[in-house]
Amino acid sequence: MEIVDLLTPESVIPHLRATSKKQALQELAKRAAEITGVHERAIFDVLLERERLGTTGVGNGIAIPHGKLPNLERLHGLFARLDTPINFDAIDDQPVDLIFLLLAPESAGADHLKALARVSRLLRDKSECEKLRGTDGAEALYALLTQSEARAA
């Protein structure tokens, strides 16, 4: 499972404007609905339910909200860079400015976990995150996200 299998240039949001975790998840659900064809409210509800289990703010300004939906054919990812970091109840209590949303079919099983692990590995790399924070434009962010794994291969 590679990042290029999850993202398209259209699923990269270079300037997400949100003032709260809830608003960020709503905006991401709206964009994910456009990409997946699944209703925005269904996506938002799955993301909110997952957050109730525990924050997906993993630290160092990064959040990886995720969930499973019955109407999906395949895994989908969205990457967003927030204009202003927000409180995401992250495990290190630091505000979040990089979000990688992952949506999987209910039947995904191990593929969902592999995708989560791949995204986590990418965003654990501090130098990659600094490049993402310093890059502007959806195409440039997409290239950075997908080229980093080509360099690591």
Rg calculated over all Cα atoms: 14 Å
The computed structural class is alpha/beta
Examine the coordinates and then state which fold CATH places here, giving the name of the CATH topology. Answer: Mannitol-specific EII, Chain A
DSSP, total strands: 6
On the 0 to 100 scale, the average pLDDT is: 92
How many angstroms separate the termini?
13 Å
| DSSP summary: helix tally | 6
Number of domains: 1
Sheet bearing the most strands, described?
6 strands, mixed
Q: Architecture, CATH level 2?
A: 3-Layer(aba) Sandwich
- Can you tell me the CATH superfamily? Mannitol-specific EII, Chain A
Write the layout of secondary structure elements.
Elements: H1 3-6, E1 12-16, H2 21-36, H3 40-53, E2 57-59, E3 62-63, E4 66-69, E5 76-86, E6 96-105, H4 110-124, H5 126-134, H6 138-152
Parallel strand pairs: 1-5, 3-6, 4-6
Antiparallel strand pairs: 2-3, 5-6
Helix pairs in contact: 2-3
Written overview of the protein:
With 153 residues, this protein is of the alpha/beta class. The protein has a single domain (3-152), classed as 3-Layer(aba) Sandwich (Mannitol-specific EII, Chain A). 48% of the residues lie in helices and 23% in strands. The protein contains 6 helices and 6 strands. The protein has helices at residues 3-6, 21-36, 40-53, 110-124, 126-134, 138-152; strands at 12-16, 57-59, 62-63, 66-69, 76-86, 96-105. Strands 1, 2, 3, 4, 5 and 6 form a 6-stranded mixed β-sheet that branches. A hairpin with a 2-residue loop joins strand 2 (57-59) and strand 3 (62-63). The radius of gyration is 14 Å and the shape is globular. The two termini are 13 Å apart.
